[in-house]
Amino acid sequence: ESTEWSRAKLTARERACFWLGLMRFKGRGGPPNPAEGRRLIERASDGKLPEAMTARAMLLLTGDPEAREIGPTPGPDDATARYLLERAADAGNKDAAAVLPALKQRQGERP
């Protein structure tokens, strides 16, 4: 099996895990199950899927994987969230790149 094919299969699993995680978290297609949704999103983000890394960071920052903005108050998971957002932004995720300046400001840096 080629490396390219193996990566394509892995990416498909990561995407499926991510979307199922969002559905479970929000209760789309069934009752909400935030704990299971969080686990699935975390699993997808461990596989380097930029969208999942962004969603996981937003979960850490706001409690909502689909949030697009963060508040000004620093939180205990800001460092982990920043790491995920930087990785996602480096991979081309525009949502992550849009949130990073606010997070840097929240951490006392100039964006």
How would you describe this structure to a colleague?
With 111 residues, this protein is mostly helical. The chain is built from 5 helices and no strands. Helix 2 crosses helix 3, helix 3 (50-62) packs antiparallel against helix 4 (78-90) and helix 4 (78-90) runs antiparallel to helix 5 (94-106). The radius of gyration is 15 Å and the shape is flat.
- Principal-axes geometry comes out as flat
Count of DSSP-assigned helices: 5
Give the overall pLDDT as a whole number.
91
Largest β sheet strand count, sense and barrel closure: none
Helix fraction by DSSP (H/I, runs of at least 4): 55-70%
Content of β-strand: under 5%
Using only CA atoms, what is the Rg?
Answer: 15 Å
Topology overview:
Blueprint: H1 3-26, H2 34-46, H3 50-62, H4 78-90, H5 94-106
Helix pairs in contact: 1-2, 2-3, 3-4, 4-5
Describe this structure in a few short sentences:
It contains 5 helices and no strands.
List key phrases describing it.
single chain; 111 residues; mainly alpha
